[in-house]
Amino acid sequence: MNLHLSAHHLEITPAIREYVTGKMERIGRHFDHVIDANVLLSVEKLEHRVEVNVHLRGKDIFVESSGADMYAAIDAVIDKLDRQIIKHKEKSVEHRGAEHRGTQGTED
After folding, report:
1. Are 95 and 88 in contact (CB under 8 A)?
2. Angle subtended at Cα 38 by Cα 36 and Cα 44, rounded to the nearest 5 degrees
3. Amino acid 108: pLDDT
4. d(Cα 107, Cα 24) in Å, to the nearest integer?
5. Pairing of strands 2-8, 59-67
6. What domains are defined for the chain?
7. Cα 30 to Cα 53: distance, rounded to the nearest angstrom
8. Beta bridge partners of 48
9. What are the pLDDT digits (tens) for 58-85?
């Protein structure tokens, strides 16, 4: 998985970079077909905002979260992303299963 980390009105410290990288590895453990991930960290006044755009085979997933703390916003966005990727994985498994069930069992 290619991880692109960028920031707006914020300096990316090594601690934040490690934190985001560690959290994104969790996504890779659930679904190994992640091609590319773009993470944008930004600060506007007192609001810390995180946006993640993940490119999967055949689909793009975009999630965003904001909060008073950057680490809390990262945790929230990773939770949202995790749920969406698991949902996508379940749909693709169901779709593959439906194709196989349709071809088997047709006896004339």
Report:
1. no
2. 170
3. 45
4. 47
5. unpaired
6. 2-101 (3.30.160.100)
7. 17
8. 43, 67
9. 789 999 999 999 999 999 999 999 899 8
